Amino acid sequence: MPRFGVALMLLVALAAPLRAQWIDDPEIDKTLSKGIRDTYNLRFEAADAAFATVVKAHPDHPAGHFFLAMVEWWRILIDIDNESRDDKFYDMLDDVIDLCDRRLKKNERDLAGLFFKGGSIGFKGRLLANRKSWVKAATTGKEALPVVLDAADIAPDNADLAFGTGIYDYYTAVLPGKYPVLKPLMVFLPEGSRARGLKELKLAAEKGRFANWEAKYFLMQTYYSIENKPSEALTYARELAGEFPDNPVFHRYVGRTFVKLGNWDDAARVFADIIANVQKGKRGYSKSMLREAQYYSGYAAMIARDYNAAMKALVECDRISRELDEEPSGYMIMANLRMGMLHDVQKQRSFANKQYDKVLRLPDFNGSRSLATRYKKTPYTF
């Protein structure tokens, strides 16, 4: 998932689930809770049924409508390269915004209306960012900001709302330095704080009743992608994967954090599980996940000096990449580089040079061409 897309959610601020306490009905509260858990576990049919029950019982409250859109969001997220569901998702969010506007017209301090309107606008920005419509995404985020701040002003002690303000504080502090193109769009925004943002996100993760899982998800991504603290990311990834064992996104992040930590034995185990889940046809375990798992399985086997297993996995990564890629991906490029390195350590110099030549014909990825040139001159060794 593009890190920039996640960050641009200044935004999503309210993407986290709302407190069902705003619907004074304990049974509906339970139904929402169950639907949220089903959504994270990719039990989409059960989640749809739960949220439809909420809509039927409270058609003028945005909660059920919003969470039906969140089920659609997760359908998109597990197949992020498929854009066929985008228009439906945008339409569902627009319907939530219209419902919230009707409530806010009657009462401008309607907390549910503010919360779900901000969340809906934020998720529109999130998908735009995933589609690399950066400026549109940032503009959408600016639109969500006053709604987010109004909600936080009404309920300053609400831990769930701290998720939205935390995202705002953190990313307004971090983004201008990482993505200068956004500076003109953020110049008139209130100043953020990296430290305060992380503190607010942790508050939501620890004390939020419904925003806690989404806050942990964001903290996991933030520590992995931006803060470069894989140990902290692993803590959240393990908790999320343990709580939602059918969610492939959380499963994959466990493997990725092990890779960043250099814990190749555990990484190999996790990616082997992912390969098995793909082969079983488990929901959300896609061909793109299989490609990633084969790459890291091959790299782990290479480090373990199991050269046959490493070559088999890297060849499979390259094969899947050729099926998926319109343009050569990093996985394809690095898999071919690693295959050359494998040939070198097995004293198969002519085969190694063929692989390096192939890498030199591909676009550069993380210094791949420089490494291929170096290894053509001096064979790779451990």
Can you tell me about this structure?
The protein has 382 residues and is mainly alpha-helical. The protein has two domains: 3-204, Serine Threonine Protein Phosphatase 5, Tetratricopeptide repeat, CATH 1.25.40; 262-377, Tetratricopeptide repeat domain (Serine Threonine Protein Phosphatase 5, Tetratricopeptide repeat, Alpha Horseshoe), CATH 1.25.40. It contains 19 helices and no strands. It has helices spanning 3-7, 26-40, 44-57, 62-77, 86-106, 111-130, 134-154, 161-178, 183-186, 194-207, 212-225, 230-243, 248-261, 264-279, 287-303, 307-324, 330-345, 349-361, 368-377. The longest helix has 21 residues, at 86-106. The radius of gyration is 23 Å and the shape is elongated.
Give the tags:
382 residues; mainly alpha; Serine Threonine Protein Phosphatase 5, Tetratricopeptide repeat; 2 domains; 19 helices; 73% helix; elongated; disordered N terminus
Q: What is the CATH class designation of the largest domain?
A: Mainly Alpha
Query: How is the main sheet built?
Result: none
SSE string: HHHHHHHHHHHHHHHHHHH
Strand percentage: under 5%
CATH topology of the largest domain: Serine Threonine Protein Phosphatase 5, Tetratricopeptide repeat
Short summary:
This protein has 382 residues and is mainly alpha-helical.
List the helices and strands and how they pair.
Elements: H1 3-7, H2 26-40, H3 44-57, H4 62-77, H5 86-106, H6 111-130, H7 134-154, H8 161-178, H9 183-186, H10 194-207, H11 212-225, H12 230-243, H13 248-261, H14 264-279, H15 287-303, H16 307-324, H17 330-345, H18 349-361, H19 368-377
Helix pairs in contact: 2-3, 2-4, 3-4, 4-5, 4-6, 5-6, 6-7, 7-8, 8-10, 10-11, 11-12, 12-13, 13-14, 14-15, 15-16, 15-17, 16-17, 17-18, 17-19, 18-19
